[in-house]
Amino acid sequence: MPLTHFAISKAAPKDRPYKLSDGFGLHLLIEPNGSKKWRFRYHFEKREKMIALGTFPATTIAEARAKRDQARTLLKKGIDPSAHRRETAAAAEQAAQSTFGAVAAEVLANKEASHASEATLSKNRWLLENLAAPLKDRPIAEITSKEILDLLKVVEKSGRRETARRLRGMIGSVFRYAVVTLRAKDDPTVPIYGALLAPKVKPRAAILDEKKFGGLMRAIDAYDGWRTLRAALQFTALTFARPGEVRGATRREFDLDGAVWRISQERTKMRRPHDIPLSPQALAVLREIWPLSKHHDLVFASIRSPVKPLSEMAMNAALRRMGYTQDEMTAHGFRSSASTILNERGFNRDVIEAALGHQDEDEIRRAYNRARYWDQRVTLMNNWADIVDELKGMA
User: Fold this and answer.
1) DSSP assignment of 373-393, as one string?
2) pLDDT of residue 92
3) Is residue 306 part of a domain?
4) Is there a catalytic annotation at residue 324?
5) What phi, psi does 254 have (nearest 5°)?
6) Is 296 a residue of the active site?
7) Pick the catalytic residue: 27, 37, 65, 242?
8) Catalytic (active site) residue 242
9) Same domain assignment for residues 106 and 92
10) Tens digit of each residue's pLDDT (9 = 90 or more) over 165-206
11) 358 flagged as catalytic
12) Distance CA 90, CA 85 (A)
């Protein structure tokens, strides 16, 4: 006799489990602790089997009967309901691992394991987790080129052409990983190449005229603000290192006696170690502020906290206070200033490129040049420091 809601509600627990039958293999198991569990008993290939269909009252009588009927339909087709349930669960798990968001998370984890810089990781997370958020829950194998292009065009129309280009590249890296892990057949970002507007490239402002550059260096020497900030600008000009490398410089990176600054690969843009010879002038700048960091590791610490580096904004703000607009000079512009002046004075281009930390595409040539040009780089940095002094003396 089919069960009723009243009969089930009144079924009291006993010392041992017992069953209330609903018919066609469906029954309710009453446990001593009072729980009531739906079970479906059936035979498949001459073996008796049973599957759980939920608990009462979370699963109603009607829902339990519907599940039983679905199982019986599978049996009529020669399908084992238990095996079908496992396969369905496995497929659901596989589908969950095959969304764009899941694959993107794996790509980010791989980059982190490869010791990518925190700045790079942060940018990649922002691109994939924020800008690409509309793709997060989509099965990656179903995403089309048109779908990605529509997303990129939204970013592009906001005026961020370069961001759209980078987003396309990051989405492409996710699809290439999906391809090699057999979760996608191809990379739908490939047909998009050429479909985006070219970025509006605005070079970082830099003073390239020797006389004007001399005036800039005199202004920096006369800057009466935070000593560490003045030293950071002087040191950046003398080493023409990237501002981020200067701002994050630590005491343990410097060999003052050997006149070498050794930057680890984790802190360089090219993800390669970069050693910089220090001229006597650069060493003098360091020694002037060295006592300020004796209790901390950062050489060019923020005025607000000795454990936080100077910000590039602070360096640029100092240049603004000296009267240089953002269209005239930036902290990053010292690299262009040095490169231009040194090239115009006839110094070896390859040595200049090595000093700038630019990466040669040929790995063997890169390693060869790094060793070959060291002595020339030492001479170059000394010559550059002397040129800076010479330019400062030009009225």
Assistant:
1) THHHHHHHHHHHHHHHHHHHT
2) 63
3) yes
4) no
5) -100, 135
6) no
7) 242
8) yes
9) no
10) 999 999 999 999 999 988 888 999 999 988 888 876 666 789
11) yes
12) 9
